[in-house]
């Protein structure tokens, strides 16, 4: 049975049409509202986003100017009990990822044990030999992680992928909540929703706890951005402002006196923690790409000498690899001694001949992804692809099978969105944001819900026509 034929789990309504527990308070409020007033509020939300400049860039298109982030004003709601179960699984996974990163750059016990093939990182561009034998301050590699989750049933949450390099989207989570509270203040007095607005404070606190040994006084934190043309620049500026940190570009920084220092109106000032939103390859032209003008020449030398914390640590992109993802159940068990509380989506590794044969025989029913792909690009959704697209992807798989993994086309859960005709179900995923420091793991209640605004679509990425929702975790 294909995903299109499988029954969808509706998060708001049970099969008999009754409203599920999570949405009862919201439904009571909604049923008392005038439909015309709701339509005006929907227009107001779009105007709010335009005024505040909540946009993103799409690369590789003729009209690659900034676009408005589509926002839907019907919240995605999770009960407190559901969130507690999710949080335990998320924390387990993030702790395992951090331990995996340390092991991969030190003794590589998981490879010696035969649990993980050496080829997965030996030929992986995200694995950095410059990190071998080095432990970041506080032993933390994955300071900020985004764990993408999908739901297929009442108690069935699955991890779709891990984002441990430079996870984005948290600014949209915060602006979604601010928009909802501005538009419907009375709603939050009727439904007890856990707070997310303190995320910037918690992020600053978590980053400060990772400052290098010997840091005197309050650590100086800066956010390194590639600049205004980056697709997530709005978020970089937003987080720096909310944390009270400096927003810097590579040209604002230099290495002097064994420290990375930033330009200020009164001279240069040392930076203790750099929250970088620049990819590894562009971080240091003396170590990586010599043509980079986005990074800081010599920063890796300062880093390895213990003079600065870089968040996330260089080399964590290995954990974003979808082939590595397919081994996460083994990784979690190896480092925690426990079975994963949150299962993966079933995954076929096309590098394996038997798996490749299965995938080639069933392309029309599967989702095929590039191992290093992101943003919904470079993938095939078999059930919605044309015969021509499937044939072209078949050739790609045969030419370079190691570059791909395949997964079943899941019957993702749906949440209602507001349309001119009323509420209508659309597929969603969820990206909780996780902070890790020597003080522990801190998970923001909720996260970013992305929604496929097109009827029947399974692609939720903003770059592919998706939108966002406010994510509510009930405080019970």
UniProtKB/TrEMBL annotation:
Pfam family, one: CP_ATPgrasp_2
Coiled-coil residue spans: none
All residue ranges annotated as the Circularly permuted ATP-grasp type domain in the record: 75-452
Protein name (Swiss-Prot/TrEMBL): Circularly permuted type 2 ATP-grasp protein
